[in-house]
């Protein structure tokens, strides 16, 4: 973020910003920035491509050595090769009948789906040595149950001291998304973020649950819950009716 | 391929027209050759070490990420959901290129890597971050850091 660079430079530290949104950087006018033509969320480009990432970071660091100023914005020339879809990728198989859950409700389908994706998620963890699930601090099965309880309209209490119930809902939703997307990406294929997002938001019980929960919470009288549900659960590009 | 023009028009317009601070001064610190610089990462991705206090909203302060943090310990708690997280899930260097910095230091391209790295939550109003950022400059100096790379998310 370019504004941070301004404060650090005033404190005597040389900075170079990575810019994902060039118009913002042009307005903030940092001393040095490298604009990169990558999707939001990927400031250093493709995952698992150390050579490409190194070219990006070196391009940024070399801007530090330029004499030109007081504002210098350079452009990285190459697109992210992982931005393209991988036709070899297939989403995890979720048997329609077994995903129906004990009562066939969406909430029950979510809980069942998390169980069905367990093997795929374990393969992901074995493959990458990590998971990014964990923001809520709850095991994923409890995350799913917590989200499901919200959808059932029970407005459950926060399971974590010091965190409000709406905040825990946001963190649990983030964990459910991370779990499903990691499970879906297990294997040797290299799906694009759009492939994974299309699957999650259009084909899973988890995605349908979060859509439904957003709609339900938007009619709540709790302004904080409305704010979280309206802005921080479903990406703007995935909100139904957003085109 | 994934430029601002690839985003939904409403989101692209909001991002392009986002109010940004217009500073009266243009500070610009110079330094030694890259091969003698000590480099640290100050991210605005809302990064947090697992088990520590995640960003709850538009918190103005920062989180500390020691250089010995392992990939499995780093999480994103950024409030925005309008960016890809699958790249970070696969490889933390997409957002937090600590492995690349270590390689550059090992081959002598940069002098060294800072002992500590940091993350803010980028959706916060930058004016609210100011006192924290100025305090952070002192911490970076005490670690002998003389170059900071500022990745957004």
Question: Could you explain the architecture of this structure?
Answer:
- The complex is a heterodimer of chains A (243) and B (153).
- The relative contact order of chain A is 0.10.
- The longest helix of chain A has 20 residues, at 165-184.
- In chain A, strands 1-2-3 form a 3-stranded parallel beta sheet, with helices on both faces.
- Chain A has helices at 2-10, 22-28, 50-63, 106-116, 118-128, 140-151, 165-184, 193-203, 205-218, 223-231; strands spanning 15-19, 32-35, 72-75.
- With 243 residues, chain A is mainly α.
- In chain A, α2 (22-28) links the parallel β1 and β2.
- Chain A is globular and about 65 Å long.
- The mean pLDDT of chain A is 92.
- Chain A has 2 domains: 2-83, no CATH class; 98-238, no CATH class.
- Chain B is of the alpha/beta class.
- Chain B has one domain (34-149).
- Chain B contains 4 helices and 7 strands, in the order αββββααββαβ.
- In chain B, strands 1, 3, 5, 6 and 7 form a 5-stranded mixed beta sheet that branches. A two-stranded antiparallel ribbon of chain B has the order 2-4.
- The two termini of chain B are 17 Å apart.
- The relative contact order of chain B is 0.26.
- The mean pLDDT of chain B is 91.
